[in-house]
Write a sequence for this structure.
């Protein structure tokens, strides 16, 4: 009998621990959250089940604070006592800071808000919020909509055209289209417009705040409490898993198209190849994260954000939500590449030719707004240390030298196209800024836009991340040359017509 | 000794159950199937091993019928007794309904047919066959080849050109090319043309039926027993796993190109991001399927086909092989978007201007062939309930409103291009239908085709599935505007030449 | 007590074996390698940890030689005794053949070289090196840079343009750009240029050999020991896992762009669909590899390289590092498709019109340099046997017939475009070879290049690998036709201007 008992003990010891997603989370649930769950288990069962799989349902803040520092994910030194000993559930987040939230409304027995914001998350994660605020991403909305050059382009992209008598007219874009176009990633402004009654399939009619720019999870979203950003852009709801933020697929939501071909480059890079082939063996959730042991090639997060240590626990790189900490040049979202801006609010920048751009139309950098050589070197050194986890410094410096050369060459190809564009404007073949017209609306102008917005970007990124054909035939150098010849051919035809 | 025995028992209990793919399947094998296996273990070892991993090799129909209804995968109330107590193996499927099958031939000791069809599968899965028959996909072949407008375009795509004296001539497409081009997905007609003797690497010369349009697994395939479709288009042979049909990669075979960019949109959508990052944790085979527990973001099947329940077992959505049950507007395979057709056989539709299209060339819907507002609302409500698994109705209705706006705007951009096209035809710059010529053959006509076939589709799908840049710079709004300006520029040049 | 002991034994037996990546590898480490590890655990911790997960850290060559032949991965009959009984570690590879290595330098206490080459790997894997040497890939660098036609195109792609007075000038490409463009995959020449002192983040200043063309892992790299190729192109460092080389993602690094769209085709093919949906169940590391059991659809390696056996252990296909063993026609990197070249060094080939191409500009094959019908049939039969693992020969022959037809049609579409191009040259609308000018620099010439380099390739590959829309609307037949009409339209405009 005793033997049987012992065997059963063995059996039990060997059973997997209760899988995430099991019926009861490990952490006790507050009464308020239980109230939410009582209805939402029917109203939105998917997010309830998803939340239950997540760390915030499994650990109380008190438990989280006790973890050794390197593995700790909360950065607060102190967390309000009333939050300390329950799971971080529905009520814990959706009822925080009710007065600051214009989207707070009476929902059931609680004063609840719809949009959980970086300020709410900062209750436990203040350092992450602080860093993120210094990030270009937090300013993605303002940097776009307050920049007249970019907005001129955005209007050309998002406006609806009509044709009458062979003439093309363009209407102003609708808010709806802006919200699902540029602002989908850059972030909408979520304002409370009033109240709305909606039919729930389970509970019938209910009142909700009516929100502008909703839904949205853009990285620079302007929230109803005045804060900027959306943590769930990367830490997707409602599991908020670190695996998610560390997965390259997550970054692809906003970094895939031809204007930001980062994910496409990553996929065909050796780093990406290894990720796709070997990730079965990886531990995407380990904190801190050890190269070679927990993963065998970088994801986006490895190079740009994650806390990395070696097998002995020595820090290779600190966690940072200011993604630009290890980036010295800006390769995307611009005409010519240039050193990173000093201030994440880029609306203050003026180029020598008076545009809201970090370079002039002929590529001169607006140096006083940009980080200096020393700061560039520091950021480069931080990145080199990450690369050094797996590569000798000969390899790393060789790679950095190529990037420097390639971004110069891509910029030179942009200049070649821009000289043709300028000539077309000068010769009256097209109408640009000097003619009080958009420089982005006519056919030949759009051909020119592709040169810098698509092809130069792709070439630069392919160089930065070793993306081979993305810098050659896949919207890279091939297309840079083709565009110049295309513009030249077009000008010959139009001049002689 | 007793203790040792008990320990060994523990050990055995803890061993993984015989892995799928192990040498013997759990279900007994019929004598006829054993006869097939005796040779095919050598002739086609891969599909034998693959079949052995599958459910049909593991369970008899009798066992399947005994499962609780929600988890049951056979929809037949009764299954022929001779099939009840063996695995569903080679002979069980490839010898069904021999008289109906023109492709039946004497093969070894059996009368076998090559092409297993929906009618064969309906022996155990009649409800799925019935639903699928009401699906546009079952009619994909006829809807294409019996539509003169579409076939005009197909001929331009698949025909081979030759050039003499600077003039371009086009030959009719070959059957071989049609079979691997449009009909690869839409489905070929598989007819028996006679008999053929082929050399098998293991068994030497053998006779087989000679089939037209073979190989093919198109969703609207016309089979040698007269049935339409191919279950293995999604439930890939010979494991026929439900995981396969639920995987977005499966849908990508026919839904990836620029004319149907669904998979590309999915990949960069938040839903796709979560799938790629978190699917390690998912149970892709569970029936019924519970959002948040078995999976944490939808795949294609979740929204369009799968039986979904909440954690308490309450049904969120029924299983349906009529994929249009939760779709109210048609976004692809057309010039302008429109409400779904009433009848899956769309060849009956005529537009106001007499074309076999659901809208006129200026976008007027052929309303009497299309579902009405009530039916649209019902389908929308079914989809809203699926979305409601994870999203509040405020979110869902906001999302639906954006789709409505974006499809209107994409249609408006198609109209703008079409007005220019019409003008080119009117002015003799190109020859269209009114000039008894194909509207799809000349350069400028092909530029116009891209507007609706590629860019408007991409914009609409990006809106429907929150695919961000796929609706902006990645063949979205950017290209819609570029095309209008391109056509306008072309007309200016040609008029003045 | 005894029972408890037994239970504990059970427990221990059931524990997973020490996970790869655990602190100590199974194989003893040589003193020299331990010397490397002592510093590199800090200097490059990622590759140390990665190596520890790999087979070469787990098994000594002596152990590897004792494995049954079918599962053995070393092909050497004899391995130098000093290497036999330790892990294959840093020193074992980086100090081999020091005299042959121009990149050998004094590093710590050892004479170490940077670049481990196929000749080094051949110490244990001689057969693989021999086969690989007969491969087109080993000659990828020479076949490109010694071919004046290709280099003319490469110069047009990689050179930087400048514009003055509306005229376009082209500079010669820099070595840096060539290294990250074409030669990234084809392979650079790695030569020792001298010595360089670099700052290591952990150890301060150190001396290293200064290398040209570094970093690089191109398949045809010219190494400092005179050998050709890079095993780590596919067997990525420093785990060198067979899973990696068998993963389609690995091949994507060099086979994804529009000029070599193999991976894109694979992704949307049924084979790819199954891989992405079902690979969780697969054993990517098993040697030999059994279709249906270890995997249920081919990856690139299955068809082109791997040793395959059926469940009874009968060989379906031998392992081969001469990837062309099962390929009879060449579909990429050319103007027209043609039978495979006899010699992997293709620089010797001359077409009837005197170009360094396997066909003339009008598509006539340079037959004497190409494999004959018998050899083609043998290679086809080898591939048919692989296909036969899962498909009947009726299916296989039907598929092969379609490929034959489609490559002819794609070639015909190239000819149509070439006839227009020739006419443009003849009529003085462009300047080609006969006018002593590059045939690849002007706008219309680049439009023509896309016809064969992108669209014909895509159509051929889509046919070969059943990639559906990649042969139709995704850079396939649609674009072949569009290009002909585009060229025709351009000529009309330019003639009349």
């Amino acid at each position: 009998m005793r033997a049987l008992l012992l065997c059963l003990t063995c059996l039990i010891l060997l059973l997997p621990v209760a899988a995430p997603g099991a019926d009861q989370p490990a952490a006790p649930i507050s009464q308020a959250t239980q109230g939410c769950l009582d209805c939402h288990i029917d109203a939105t069962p998917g997010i309830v089940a998803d939340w239950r799989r997540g760390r915030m349902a499994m650990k109380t803040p008190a438990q989280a604070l006790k973890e050794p520092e390197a593995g700790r994910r909360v950065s607060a030194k102190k967390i309000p006592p009333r939050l300390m000993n329950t799971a971080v559930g529905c009520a814990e987040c959706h009822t925080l800071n009710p007065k600051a939230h214009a989207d707070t409304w009476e929902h059931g027995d609680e004063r609840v808000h719809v949009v959980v914001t970086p300020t709410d998350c900062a209750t436990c994660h203040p350092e992450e919020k602080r860093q993120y605020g210094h990030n270009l991403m937090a300013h993605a909305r303002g940097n776009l909509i307050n920049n007249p050059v970019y907005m001129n382009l955005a209007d050309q992209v998002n406006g609806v055209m009509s044709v009458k008598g062979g003439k093309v007219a363009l209407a102003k874009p609708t808010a709806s289209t802006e919200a699902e176009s540029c602002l989908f990633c850059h972030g909408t402004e979520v304002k409370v417009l009033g109240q709305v009654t909606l039919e729930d399939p389970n509970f019938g009619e209910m009142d909700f705040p009516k929100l502008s720019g909703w839904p949205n999870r853009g990285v620079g979203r302007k929230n109803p409490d005045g804060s900027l950003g959306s943590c769930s852009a990367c830490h997707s709801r409602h599991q908020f898993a670190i695996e998610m933020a560390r997965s390259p697929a997550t970054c692809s939501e906003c970094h895939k198209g031809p204007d930001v071909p980062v994910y496409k480059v990553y996929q065909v890079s050796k780093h990406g190849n290894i990720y796709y082939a070997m990730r079965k063996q990886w531990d995407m959730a380990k904190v801190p994260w050890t190269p070679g042991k927990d993963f065998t090639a970088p994801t986006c997060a490895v190079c740009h954000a994650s806390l990395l240590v070696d097998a002995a626990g020595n820090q290779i790189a600190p966690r940072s939500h200011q993604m630009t900490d290890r980036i010295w040049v800006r390769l995307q979202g611009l005409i010519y590449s240039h050193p990173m801006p000093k201030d994440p609010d880029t609306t203050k920048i003026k180029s020598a030719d008076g545009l809201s751009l970090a370079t002039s139309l002929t590529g001169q950098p607006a140096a006083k707004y940009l980080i200096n050589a020393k700061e560039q070197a520091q950021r480069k050194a931080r990145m080199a240390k990450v690369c050094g986890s797996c590569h000798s410094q000969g390899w790393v410096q060789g790679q950095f030298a190529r990037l420097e050369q390639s971004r110069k060459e891509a910029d030179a190809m942009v200049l070649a196209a821009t000289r043709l564009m300028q000539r077309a404007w000068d010769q009256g073949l097209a109408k640009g800024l000097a003619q009080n017209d958009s420089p982005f609306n006519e056919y030949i102008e759009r051909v020119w836009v592709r040169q810098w917005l698509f092809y130069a970007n792709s070439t630069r990124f392919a160089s930065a991340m070793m993306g081979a054909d993305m810098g050659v035939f896949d919207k890279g150098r091939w297309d840079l040359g083709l565009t110049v010849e295309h513009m030249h051919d077009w000008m010959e035809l139009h001049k002689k017509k």
Notes: Residues 197 and 207 of chain C are 4 Å apart (CA to CA). Strands of chain C lie at 104-107, 110-113, 161-164, 167-170, 192-200, 204-211, 308-309, 315-317, 329-330, 338-339. Residues 100-158+170-233 of chain C form one domain. Chain C has two domains: 100-158+170-233, 242-494.
